[in-house]
Design brief:
The chain has one domain: Purple Acid Phosphatase, chain A, domain 2 (4-Layer Sandwich), CATH 3.60.21. The two termini are 25 Å apart. The protein is α/β, with parallel strands linked by helices and 161 residues long. Strands 4-3-2-1-10-11 form a six-stranded mixed β-sheet, covered by helices on one side. The chain has a five-stranded mixed β-sheet with strand order 5-6-7-9-8, with helices on one face. The chain is built from four helices and eleven strands.
């Protein structure tokens, strides 16, 4: 399965649209946003696609975003999601809660930990858990997303122009 991972759009619907088009062009079948969505315009870009997201520290009106996402058929998981996709376990959080992040890494129950927050792309392992930060689509020198091929455990970072 090809999973498109994005984060930290901070209400930049135009950049989110370009990122999603890039990921779709590369065959992404499911989309995960790691928080700091920023507004409804970003969620509009995910409408009609299989997608899920978590809320970040700058997603101020969280209840409104969650309601809007529900109307669009996009799964909002609050501040943390545990998802099973293609037989793999994914933990998804924004990354601003250090205690939650550490608990997930200590428990070692997930194959992947997807997070944002730092605006810096990251790919590293802690035990069996692969930590992936796709980078950011706002306030970053290079705007990046990530494409994960779960069948081959292959990760590709893509720059969004």
């Amino acid at each position: 399965m090809l999973i498109g991972i994005l984060s930290d759009t901070h209400d930049r619907a135009d950049t989110a649209a370009a990122a999603i088009a890039l990921l779709r062009g590369r065959g992404a079948e499911f989309f995960i946003h790691c928080g700091d969505v920023g507004g409804e315009g970003v969620l509009d870009q995910l409408a009609g696609l299989p997608a899920a997201f978590v809320l970040g520290n700058t997603d101020w009106d969280q209840d409104a975003l969650a309601r809007y996402a529900q109307n669009l058929g996009i799964a909002c998981h609050g501040r943390f999601a545990s998802l099973e996709l293609d037989g793999k376990m994914f933990a998804v959080l924004h990354g601003d809660d250090a205690h939650l992040r550490q608990r997930i890494l200590t428990e070692q129950r997930h194959d992947y930990l997807l997070q944002g927050h730092t605006h810096v792309a990251l790919d590293e392992h802690v035990g069996r858990t692969r930590i992936i930060n796709p980078g950011a689509l706002q306030r970053a020198r290079q705007k990046t997303v990530a494409l994960l091929d779960t069948s081959r455990d292959l990760l590709t970072f893509l720059e969004v122009g």
